[in-house]
Amino acid sequence: MSAATTISPSTTTSSPPQDPPSRTWIPTSTPITLLPTSTARLYHHIHPILLLSLFYLSFPSLTAHPVSTLSKLLLPITGLQILYCVLCLPIAKAGVLRVNRKPKPKPGVKKPRELGIVWEKVVPAILATLLTFLLATPLMTIIIILFGAPLTTHLAHNLLCATHMALLMFQPLFYVYGVDAVMWKEVC
After folding, report:
1. Beta carbons of 73 and 61 less than 8 angstroms apart
2. What digits encode the pLDDT tens for the residues 80-136?
3. In angstroms, what CA-CA distances link 39 with 44, 80, 82?
4. Cα(78)–Cα(50) distance, rounded to whole angstroms?
5. What is the pLDDT of residue 102?
6. Are 101 and 137 in contact (CB under 8 A)?
7. What is the CA radius of gyration of the chain?
8. pLDDT one-digit tens code per residue, 14-49
9. Are 135 and 177 in contact (CB under 8 A)?
10. In 10 A of CB 71, how many CB atoms?
């Protein structure tokens, strides 16, 4: 005889399957805001018009001689991007976004010169531009080639196109975020 095993309904409990704990990503940064000045608000609207008109006016030359035209446009676009960063965006220092606020002068301390405030904004913009040329341009060149741009025949075209794209995309990000790894992980 075989012993039959019976399972009583009271010993087995069926609980609904529990969902694994959900992974929700909570960003630690906020969107980039413009500086609260009328100049920043005005130039924020003028900047795209200047860039688009620059490309519109140089389009016939761009299609006829792309390498020389892109080379000539690099300096004015760099200047416009630096001006945009200085006038419109907050500076990153030590991984913290700063909005330019004038500190209250302490008694007995001379008022800081305005030239120092300008250089405080221009130098990070120039450093952001250098980081863009050194880090983002090779990355954009590789991405352009991986997306199908010719590697051997149009290398100058690819490099200049990547430089322009990196300057327009990454230079304001380097200016605002600096080289803070946590912020760049959030950007990516």
Report:
1. no
2. 999 999 999 998 764 444 455 555 656 666 655 555 667 888 999 999 999 999 999
3. 8, 15, 15
4. 12
5. 54
6. no
7. 27
8. 555 565 556 666 666 677 788 899 999 999 999 999
9. no
10. 13
Could you tell me where the DSSP H helices lie in the chain? 38-57, 59-64, 66-88, 114-131, 137-146, 155-177, 181-187
Euclidean distance between CA atoms 159 and 157, whole angstroms:
6
**Phi, psi for 183 (deg, rounded to 5):** -65, -40
Q: Residue 98's beta-bridge partner residues?
A: 91
User: Which residues touch 129 (CB under 8 Å, ≥6 apart)?
Assistant: 78, 81, 82, 167, 171, 174
Q: Give me 71's structure tokens.
A: 């080379």
**DSSP for 57-103, written as a single string:** HTHHHHHHSHHHHHHHHHHHHHHHHHHHHHHHSPEEETTEEE---PP
Our measurement of the distance from residue 53's CA atom to the centroid of its chain's CA atoms, rounded to an integer in Å, reads 23
Q: How far is CA 115 from CA 87, 105, 118, 121, 124, in A?
A: 15, 17, 5, 10, 15
